[in-house]
Specification:
heterodimer; A: mainly beta; six-stranded mixed beta sheet; three-stranded antiparallel beta sheet; B: mainly beta; seven-stranded mixed beta sheet; four-stranded antiparallel beta sheet; 11 strands
Chain lengths: 111, 124
């Protein structure tokens, strides 16, 4: 059981926007800006898409954005494209922990 | 451009020792912590531990008794040793570079470059 809760799946049509939630507690997601998001295509390594809640690494499309409200972080993909179909994972660093923890992952399907 | 290339045995029998190595090409080896992370269908992504260029390590408490990491700065490589493996250790293992570190523990909390992954299967 993951420390961070994500929906198992989210779907949308091309061009639409979708949002993936990542729910934790005040000791992790809600307490620090250590929230990150990863995209993972089948058979590939995870790719960092968002760090520190809302920052994009160089080269990541601005269609990807991150935010946080209370104990829930969110990843929004706007202008959904076929290539966005993948698994997405959030992560955070709980104050009571000695290491980073990950969410269970969300499968994004482009209809 | 930073690249991580990893290798090691992919099929083990129970009680054997898993050994993986990750080579880092490009970028600074000494400026970042280097982690091992695994991914199994049952447990998702799990951080195993990290090491820095001086050999200082931090391990996941759940695996600490079986894990050892080492570093070879002359080759910009780091390695994972997991002893007494069982079927529960079957997973894809990744090496990764820590991008950000926490202010309190100085441990990595996200990862910007990853190896290609190694599927390790433990079966009798």
């Amino acid at each position: 059981q993951s420390a961070l809760t994500q929906p198992a799946s989210v779907s949308g049509s091309p061009g639409q926007s979708i949002t993936i939630s990542c729910t934790g507690t005040s000791s992790d997601v809600g307490g620090y800006n250590y929230v990150s998001w990863y995209q993972q295509h089948p058979g590939k390594a995870p790719k960092l898409m968002i760090y520190d809640v809302s920052n994009r690494p160089s080269g990541v499309s601005n269609r990807f954005s991150g935010s946080q409200s209370g104990n829930t972080a969110s990843l929004t993909i706007s202008g959904l494209q076929a290539e966005d179909e993948a698994d997405y994972y959030c992560s955070s660093y709980p104050s009571s922990s000695t290491h980073v923890v990950f969410g269970g992952g969300t499968k994004v399907t482009v209809l | 451009q930073v690249q991580l290339q990893q290798w090691g045995a992919g099929l083990l029998t129970p009680s054997e020792t898993l050994f993986l190595t990750c080579a880092v090409y490009g970028g600074s080896f000494s400026d970042y912590p280097w982690s091992w992370i695994r991914q199994s269908p049952g447990k998702g992504l799990e951080w195993i531990g990290e090491i820095n260029h001086s050999g200082s390590t931090n391990y996941n408490p759940s695996l600490k008794s079986r894990v050892t990491m080492s570093v070879d700065t002359s080759k910009n490589q780091f390695s994972l040793n997991l002893k007494s493996v069982t079927a529960a250790d079957t997973a894809v293992y990744y090496c990764a570079r820590g991008r950000g570190t926490t202010l309190t523990t100085a441990r990595a909390y996200d990862f910007d470059y990853w190896g290609q992954g190694t599927l390790v299967t433990v079966s009798s």
